[in-house]
Amino acid sequence: MNSQDISSNANSRVLKTYQEARLQNTENLRKLVVDAAATLLQEEGPEAVTVRKVSQKMGCSTKIIYSLFVNKEGLAQQLYLDGCKLLANEFETPPQAADPVQHMMNLGETFWQFGQRYSSYYKLMFGGAFADFKPDEESVHGTVTAMRQLITVISSAQEQGRIPGQYDTESIVRIVWASLHGVIHLYHGGHLGDVQSAHAVYRQTLSLIVSSLMPEQIT
Predict the structure, then answer these.
(1) Which sign does the torsion angle of CA 61, 82, 188, 129 carry?
(2) What digits encode the pLDDT tens for the residues 93-117?
(3) Residues 129-161: tens digit of each pLDDT
(4) Do the beta carbons of residue 154 and residue 172 sit within 8 Å?
(5) DSSP string for residues in 58-117
(6) Which among 136, 148, 163, 212 is most buried, taking Cβ atoms within 10 Å?
(7) Continuous H helices in 118-147
(8) Which residues are within 8 A (CB) of 95 and not within 5 positions of it... i.e. 6 or more apart?
């Protein structure tokens, strides 16, 4: 290899390294922006998550955020995906009971606790807090991933013959999901009294759903 080839390879590597560094810097900056937006989301609620307020918290111009996320909806999508990760992590926390009835009860309670602990994320993801934001295909896939534990326990119960076969797994998941969301939405809207009263209604709803799917004694 002559000196010209060595020089050419070196220049190529410098260019690649620069491109990698630039990409890495962009990803780091995106993460910092999302972290700032997530802090606003948790501390002040979804209405506080604006490009202007995020840029103020970051100490940068709004142009930088627009260049990274295009608009507020782009930032909302990233927060939505982060919320899906939080929900997936929460669903991994409860013990996986051998009894599918108890397992579903555990997952249902975990979902309630997620709505309480991460209420701002919940409102962004499921409560229409960002009126112009509609989850795209990637976001919907993130939701499905977050719900994997629920899908798995329902599918397993069907395979064991514990759940009658007139409904497919997807339909059952949607019924469960919609019913539990309904209680949380009513609570957030002030229709179910204080948190203790709302939680009692939620637990009763969860018990009715699970017992209708698998008619066994629920403790």
Answers:
(1) positive
(2) 877 778 889 999 999 999 999 999 9
(3) 777 777 778 888 888 888 888 899 999 999 888
(4) yes
(5) HTS-HHHHHHHHSSHHHHHHHHHHHHHHHHHHHHTSS---SSHHHHHHHHHHHHHHHHHH
(6) 163
(7) 119-126, 137-146
(8) 106
